[in-house]
C-alpha cells in the first residue's frame, strides 16, 4: 500500500459574474466579478482595504454565500456546496491556531474532522511539519512559537489534507518586514512543491509582484485588471492600476491623435491610441525616464519634459531623483549609480524618454 503523502493536483476555479451584497442600501461588496483561475496557478487578489478581497475569498471557500453568480470547481458549480465539502485549505492573517492544542494536534485537526486513521494522520502531520521546517516542534504549544512559526503551523494545517486549492488572506501582514520576506519565499516554495492552486490576498504590491503568476486588481468590489506582474507594470490600462502597482510619472495632458499627445504646450509623439479618448494620461515608469542638462543632448525622437530637481537620494545601487515638472506636477527618475547625471536639488533638467517607454492610460 502506498504511504499517505501530501500533495494534490491543483484545481481550476472559475468565478462567474459573482456578486455579494451585505445590505440593499450599500453598494455591492463584490460587484459582478469574473476570474478564471488555472490549475496550479498562484493568483493574487490585490487592492486597497475594503475593495472586496476577503469577501471574494470567503465566497470561494464557502464561508459567505454569493448574492448572485457562481463559483465553478473544475467546471462544476459549487456555489451552494458547504465549505467542508469543498475541501479547500485556508490561512488567515491572525493564524487562528487552537491555543490549548499542541502544534501536532493543531495540524491534525482537519484530519480528525475527516476521520483519517491515527497512524495515517501521524504520518501526514509529520510530513506537513517537515514541509514547513517545523519537524520536531510537534509537542510545543502555539504560545511557545514565534509569529512566523505560528503562521507555518497554520500553513501545515491548511495543506495536510491535500486540498486542491489553498486560500490565503493577508497571511503575512502581521509579521515584520524581514520575517515577511522569508515567509514569502517559504510560501512560494510550498506552491512550487505541492502544485496546488493558490489564491493569495494582499494589499502589499511588492508581495503581489514577487509571488504571483497573475494578479487581479480590485477596486470598489470590481476586478479592474488581471495580468502577469510584468504586464500590469509595463502595460497598465488605467491610472488606478498604474498608481497602485509601482510608481509612475503621470502626465495629465491631452491625447490628440495617433501621432500627438499635448502636454503643457509641448507636442509629444504617441504611437498608440489607448482607449481613443482625449482625456487620457500618459505615464512613464521612473526607470524609463532619463535626465539631461539641455535639449540638444536628448536623443532625437524622444519626448521631453523640462523639470527642476527637488531632491536626490542615494540608495547604493541607484539614485532616486525627485522632479517638479513645469506644469507643477511631480515625478521621479531612478538612475543607476555611475550614470553621468549626478545633480543637485534646484538644478534645471530635461526629463526625456522614448515613446515606446510610455503608456496611455484611461482615467
Ligand atoms: P477587503 O478584504 O478588500 O479589505 P472586504 O471584502 O473585507 O474588503 O470588504 C468589502 C466591503 O464589504 C467593505 O465595504 C466592507 O465594509 C463590507 N463588508 C465586509 N464584510 C461585511 C459584513 N460581514 N457585513 C457587512 N459588510 C461587510
Ligand atoms: Mg480583507
Automatic annotation (TrEMBL):
Domain of life: Bacteria
PROSITE patterns in the cross-refs: ABC_TRANSPORTER_1 (PS00211), ABC_TRANSPORTER_2 (PS50893)
Enzyme class: translocase
Domain ABC transporter as annotated: residue spans: 13-245
One Gene Ontology CC term in the entry: ATP-binding cassette (ABC) transporter complex
EC assignment: 7.6.2.9
SMART domains: AAA
Keywords per UniProt: ATP-binding, Nucleotide-binding, Transport
Gene Ontology molecular function: ABC-type quaternary ammonium compound transporting activity; ATP binding; ATP hydrolysis activity
InterPro entries, per the entry: AAA+_ATPase, ABC_SmlMolc_Importer, ABC_transporter-like_ATP-bd, ABC_transporter-like_CS, Mo/tungstate-bd_C_term_dom, P-loop_NTPase, Transp-assoc_OB_typ2
PANTHER family referenced in this protein's UniProt entry, alphabetically: SPERMIDINE/PUTRESCINE IMPORT ATP-BINDING PROTEIN POTA (PTHR42781), SPERMIDINE_PUTRESCINE IMPORT ATP-BINDING PROTEIN POTA (PTHR42781:SF4)
UniProt protein name: ABC-type quaternary amine transporter
Organism: Actinoplanes friuliensis DSM 7358
Amino acid at each position: 500500500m502506498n504511504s499517505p503523502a501530501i500533495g494534490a493536483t491543483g484545481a481550476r476555479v472559475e468565478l462567474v459574474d459573482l456578486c455579494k451584497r451585505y445590505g440593499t442600501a450599500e453598494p455591492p461588496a463584490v460587484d459582478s466579478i469574473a476570474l478564471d483561475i488555472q490549475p496550479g496557478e498562484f493568483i493574487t487578489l490585490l487592492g486597497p482595504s475594503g475593495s472586496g478581497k476577503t469577501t471574494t475569498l470567503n465566497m470561494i471557500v464557502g464561508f459567505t454565500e454569493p448574492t448572485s453568480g457562481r463559483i465553478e470547481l473544475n467546471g462544476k458549480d459549487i456555489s451552494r456546496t458547504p465549505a467542508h465539502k469543498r475541501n479547500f485549505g485556508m490561512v488567515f492573517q491572525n493564524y487562528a491556531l487552537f491555543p490549548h492544542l499542541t502544534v501536532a494536534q493543531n495540524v491534525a485537526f482537519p484530519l480528525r474532522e475527516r476521520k483519517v486513521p491515527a497512524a495515517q494522520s501521524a504520518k501526514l502531520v509529520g510530513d506537513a511539519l517537515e514541509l514547513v521546517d517545523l519537524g520536531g516542534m510537534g509537542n510545543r504549544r502555539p504560545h511557545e512559537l514565534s509569529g512566523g512559526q505560528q503562521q507555518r503551523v497554520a500553513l501545515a494545517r491548511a495543506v495536510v489534507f491535500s486540498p486542491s486549492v489553498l486560500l490565503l488572506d493577508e497571511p503575512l501582514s502581521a509579521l515584520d518586514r524581514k520575517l515577511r520576506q522569508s515567509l514569502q519565499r517559504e510560501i512560494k516554495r510550498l506552491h512550487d512543491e505541492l502544485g496546488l492552486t493558490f489564491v493569495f490576498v494582499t494589499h502589499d504590491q511588492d508581495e503581489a509582484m514577487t509571488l504571483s503568476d497573475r494578479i487581479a486588481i480590485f477596486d470598489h468590489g470590481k476586478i479592474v485588471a488581471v495580468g502577469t506582474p510584468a504586464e500590469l507594470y509595463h502595460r497598465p490600462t488605467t491610472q488606478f492600476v498604474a498608481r497602485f502597482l509601482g510608481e509612475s510619472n503621470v502626465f495629465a495632458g491631452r491625447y490628440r491623435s495617433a501621432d500627438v499627445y499635448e502636454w503643457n504646450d509641448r507636442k509629444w509623439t504617441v504611437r498608440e491610441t489607448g482607449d481613443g479618448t482625449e482625456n487620457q494620461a500618459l505615464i512613464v515608469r521612473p526607470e524609463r525616464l532619463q535626465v539631461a542638462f539641455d535639449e540638444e543632448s536628448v536623443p532625437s525622437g524622444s519626448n521631453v519634459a523640462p523639470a527642476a530637481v527637488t531632491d536626490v537620494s542615494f540608495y547604493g545601487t541607484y539614485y532616486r531623483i525627485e522632479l517638479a515638472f513645469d506644469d507643477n506636477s511631480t515625478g521621479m527618475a531612478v538612475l543607476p549609480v555611475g550614470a553621468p547625471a549626478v545633480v543637485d536639488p534646484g538644478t534645471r533638467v530635461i526629463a526625456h524618454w522614448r515613446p515606446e517607454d510610455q503608456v496611455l492610460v484611461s482615467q
